[in-house]
Write a structure and sequence with these properties.
The chain contains 9 helices and 20 strands. The model is unreliable at 351-363 and 366-370 (pLDDT under 50). It has 2 domains: 3-126, Rossmann fold (3-Layer(aba) Sandwich); 131-359, no CATH class. The longest helix is centred in the middle third of the chain and has 15 residues, at 131-145. It is of the alpha+beta class and 376 residues long. The protein has helices at 3-16, 34-46, 64-71, 95-102, 120-126, 131-145, 243-253, 281-284, 300-303; strands at 24-29, 50-55, 82-87, 110-115, 150-154, 160-164, 173-175, 184-187, 191-194, 198-205, 208-211, 226-231, 234-240, 261-267, 288-294, 310-314, 319-322, 329-330, 351-352, 355-359. The strands form 4 sheets. The chain has a 7-stranded antiparallel beta sheet with strand order 13-12-10-6-5-17-18. α1 (3-16) packs across α2 and α1 (3-16) packs across α5.
Length: 376
């Protein structure tokens, strides 16, 4: 194991979970993440933290509820928190079953960390930054974005977007690795996002893509960027020199509502410097701008549509201007804020706006009928 990987494992336990001697930890893992679950288990053993491991079959597992329930101690048998850490490669499974198992605990005594894209790179890159550092970078963006009505974003590869914000209607999301008591953290972290009231221009995605579907397509776009022309908050054309990626895009944009721009996202995780072939949220958190096409992160009644597919196209870096301020934010060299993180943004893009305990199918594959793209 590389030193950076073990450092990421320890940062998860110490800085994200902040596990203490009175806590009880449940490590839940799918077969595709067994090795990573073993790393976390070793870190807990080194700290003499009481934990229990539970295997799960992703998405559909008739015996999981019983196995999980047997592993949960009674609330009056210890004084600390019950902490659940789940590790999966492509999916976010069995959230309702987790809520049932944790129901005997007061919200102040329970915390859930849902790790998607569990792999070596998650620990060696995306978990090199702690939640406080990510929160300070997210705050630096939100301090300006929440007071703005217009944005312009450019990137070194040629992105040039003009955006109108409606912060009274559409809420921001701040994924920073920190949850409210009783909440859920989705890792990897490091992003702020919203739904644009309007957006026009061109996106040149020269880093990677991320899609909430099962695909074996190489997600890297460094050698063959994707160019998307956007008018009226919709993709009107998309091109890529790679024929495989072009077919992939054609299939995605051929799905109902996927041409809609459902998300404006700004990545803040400076630990992520190179794109991965894995279809992953790791790529999405890199410092830069990305647009999510299809499913959005708002109440469907606010936006007016719902969609099964969410396709993120990610550009590296970028300059962000707010209203008439001549000084932009440089996403590649973002100066962290020393101010408090705003309270109004939601913690995650995996939850419905008014119920932090209900998962939507926009962060990863969460249901047995999740999409599998056929052209790749």
């Amino acid at each position: 194991m590389k030193a950076e990987t073990w450092q990421g494992v320890q940062r998860l336990v110490d800085d994200y979970v902040k596990v203490g001697p009175d806590d009880r930890v449940i490590v839940i893992y799918a077969s595709d993440s067994e090795e990573q679950a073993a790393w976390v288990s070793v870190a807990l053993e080194c700290r003499k933290i009481s934990f229990h491991r539970v295997w799960m079959q992703p998405l559909y597992d008739t015996g999981f509820q019983e196995r999980l329930t047997r592993s949960i101690p009674s609330p009056d048998s210890f004084t600390g928190r019950i902490v659940v850490i789940t590790l999966e490669r492509d999916t976010l499974s069995h959230h309702e079953k987790l809520l049932v198992a944790l129901a005997p605990f007061e919200r102040s005594r329970r915390l859930v960390f849902r790790i998607i894209n569990a792999c070596e790179a998650l620990f060696s890159t995306a978990l090199q930054e702690g939640p406080e550092a990510l929160s300070a970078r997210n705050t630096a963006i939100l301090e300006r974005a929440l007071l703005a009505s217009r944005m312009r974003i450019t990137s070194p590869a040629g992105t040039d977007l003009r955006i109108t914000l409606d912060n009274d209607l559409y809420r921001w999301v701040s994924n920073r690795g920190i949850a409210r008591p009783g909440g859920t953290v989705v890792l990897p972290a490091g992003e702020v996002a919203t739904f644009p009231a309007s957006i026009e221009g061109v996106l040149v995605a020269d880093f990677a893509f991320n899609v909430n579907a099962i695909t074996s397509q190489d997600a890297r776009l460094v050698s063959h960027p994707v160019t998307v022309q956007i008018k009226g908050r919709q993709a009107v054309s998309w091109t890529c020199r790679s024929l495989d990626v072009q077919r992939f895009l054609d299939e995605c944009f051929g799905q109902p509502c996927v041409r809609n721009v459902g998300e404006l996202g700004l990545g803040t995780n400076i630990g992520i410097t190179s794109s991965l072939p894995l279809n992953s949220h790791i790529n999405e958190r890199c410092p830069g701008v990305h647009l999510g096409f299809g499913q959005h992160n708002q109440d469907p009644e606010q936006v007016g549509y719902d969609c099964r597919l969410h396709l993120d196209l990610i550009a590296r870096g970028g300059l962000v201007w707010f209203d008439d301020d001549p000084v932009p934010l440089d996403l590649a060299n973002l100066r962290p804020s020393s101010g408090p993180h705003p309270m109004s943004p939601r913690d995650e893009d995996a939850f419905q706006p008014d119920d932090d305990d209900v998962l939507e199918d926009c962060c990863g594959v969460m249901t047995c009928d999740g999409l599998r793209l056929s052209n790749i």
